[in-house]
């Protein structure tokens, strides 16, 4: 739980960053803030002192506290040796590999890291951004939160831009904020993976996609394009879409399809990522079916555990550590004011044991 002075500081800083308090505008008096936040004078003074040290406000003796020209002040400071990484997740799945890749490059160049986690929640993202903006950063590597929609935190990204803090986006981009981006060619990857199943005789393929992220939207597009290129089986196309907090609904819909009679149920499932594929394999076993004998499964990301499952999971590669390294290299170039360009990674299919070839053999 945040200390009282941190709550006061965050509230004032948020209003400064939003533009509610403009340059040279006087802040409420200490007494007003004591009443508004139900805190002591010491707590208010500690919050104000922090903001003054971070150059967001200045004080006039006997006259109160005022909003500083903080964006200009921070532009011309010596570049700090701290880089922030803001990700939807930090300690699980493929994200440690991405962070490790970035850290290898940054530490070699004398930079240290601050990590922040949004849990794919825009409210958490806003809190994390405000906290990071008070850290005097040299740059930011960002994985967008719910990237399929316009970010409600675009004002903070614009402020970061005004502060001349370089940013690199990984895995996705925001529609309403332009930035240098590193991402996988998700549409092409899922087009290739879906065709891999079709080429092995599968016609009834469920595709399960998290569409609150642009990665999921593009993967869905690749799946649909593969079906569109095979119009004779297009009626069998069965996409299941869910938001990041609705995965249980997707699993329930999948269960209902798996419980159909053998001639009506799907023969294959392609999933948003390996993490979901692992849950789908458990689900298939729970309803008394097996992989790949009854249902074939393909994931995405080549998660480390995927090769140790039984059966070993067929999947598509993700750049992971290389993406982290490249993001750090591009960020260092931006810090030096060099021009950089986006990077798109091709994904390769890794054929393991979770897909069955069901084509009828010629006599």
From TrEMBL:
SMART domains xref list: HTH_GNTR
Boundaries of every HTH gntR-type domain copy: 2-70
InterPro entries: AraR_ligand_bind_dom, LacI/GalR-like_sensor, Peripla_BP_I, Tscrpt_reg_HTH_GntR, WH-like_DNA-bd_sf, WH_DNA-bd_sf
The keyword Cell inner membrane belongs to this UniProt entry's keyword annotation: no
UniProt KW keywords: DNA-binding, Transcription, Transcription regulation
Secreted among keywords: no
Pfam families named among the record's database cross-references: GntR, Peripla_BP_3
Domain of life, source organism: Bacteria
Protein name: GntR family transcriptional regulator
Organism: Leuconostoc aquikimchii
